Prior knowledge:
The chain has 311 residues and is of the alpha+beta class. It contains four helices and eleven strands. A four-stranded antiparallel sheet has the order 6-10-8-9, with helices on one face. Strands 5-11-7 form a three-stranded antiparallel sheet, with no helix packed on it. A two-stranded antiparallel sheet has the order 1-2. The longest helix is centred in the middle third of the chain and has 82 residues, at 129-210. The chain starts with a strand and ends with a strand.
Amino acid sequence: GEIGQVLTVTEEGYIWQDIPVDDALDGASENAVQNKVVTAAIGALEEADSAMQDDIATLQTATTNLADTDTAIQGKIADLQAKDTALANADTAMLNSIGALQTRDNELANAQATINTNLSTIQGNVSSLNGANALIQGDITALKAKDTELTATDNTLAGNITALQTNTAKIETTATNLQKSVTDLQTKNTELEKTVAELQTKLNTLLGLLENDGQEAQVLTKGADSTFGWKNAAAGGAQGLTINLVEGWNLVAIPGNANLDESQASLLAEIEIYTYDKAQQTYAPSQGLLPLNSYWMRAPRACTIHFATAK
């Protein structure tokens, strides 16, 4: 026979006949051989499509599991945020953990988008069975790697939660110690208030004495019982007078026989001196020194004041 002919059995015997070929590849072709080939190919395509649909269902189940895992992660994030409100001092560490969880959530979303893209590629390449099968195998491998990665992430999250619980215990211990420190400070503050009250009483006594000038040749003196009063100074005729100052504030009463002409200029230059202004009822910087008057003197260091005394 010739090309395009087939040996056919007829009533007249075996003869060579032309093979009819239809342009449409379907089961209604007049070519029985062509019908069998096309039908077999369609069956193979349908089987491949069924297998692919099963793979797609498996992938969708895996996606649902990923969504459930993501929901659980979001729940853990909510728990961490609730603890963050109560533990302000651990805020920075917890925010970092939440940021890491949000980053992981974005990675999961990106993975989901990648899976969707791969599914579209698989559906678009159904007619190319070999290529589609290779893509499916690649996607399954990627999903297994992603599942391993998610498992590792879960383990990391569990470690972070344990670390946060440890930090919480440390913070609670620190809060207890701080509360004890506050109590100690309150006790010390009570003691200081008592001391201030005692000093205020002594100051009021001194102010009362300062409102009444002492008599000539008297000085304001602190007695053995820690009280102040005007007492007679040493008899006149002495050639000099010294007053010892400590570093800081000193209450000084100038005797009536002190000669201040030569010494007060240097005192005013070196030492802060304040006197009580009765009219204004307050202390003001002193422009000079007068006998039988009292002054607050602030010495920059321990020193001694030397006066000449009137004869």
